[in-house]
Fold:
Amino acid sequence: MTANIERATLVDTQMNARAQTAAYVERYRAPFSLRCGAFLVDYIVLVGIIAFMTLAARLFGGGARSAGDTTETTGLVIAVAVAVVDLILLPMWRGQSIGKWATGLRIERTNGRRAGVLRVLVRHLIGYTLSFLTLGLGFVVAAFNQQGRGLHDFIAGTVVVREEARRARAR
Structure:
């Protein structure tokens, strides 16, 4: 009889933890429109660098074609470096890309803890790749499920929440 009571308590505790996690995700999950806005900000930053450097190559390249090529190549190298920092390093360090920071969003585990390096790498390198390979449907999934999670979030065990979730937990 004791074993049944202990087992029931353990099951109740696990179910209570799942219910709290579901309530946390539901309360603070990021709306799809904000996630799209964050993606748009990240996209504008990267494309802006390339556009600026292309314009600079055309304006200051003069008659020397090689000077324009060098400026464009430099722009691409800078854009790739910014993409790595924005899409990999910043989310690993802060849980936010530039776009998520600007829109007040954060990447976290489904239980509200920090996502961590491995989860962010899985989310961005594997999850984003699969989401793109499905012609973007992996991203659109976030608009139609109750937790607001995309394919990349399901793969990595993460969720995108509003920044106020961190402040509420700190209280």
The chain has one domain: 2-170. Helices lie at 2-28, 32-60, 65-94, 98-103, 117-133, 137-144, 151-156, 164-170. The two ends are 41 Å apart (CA to CA).
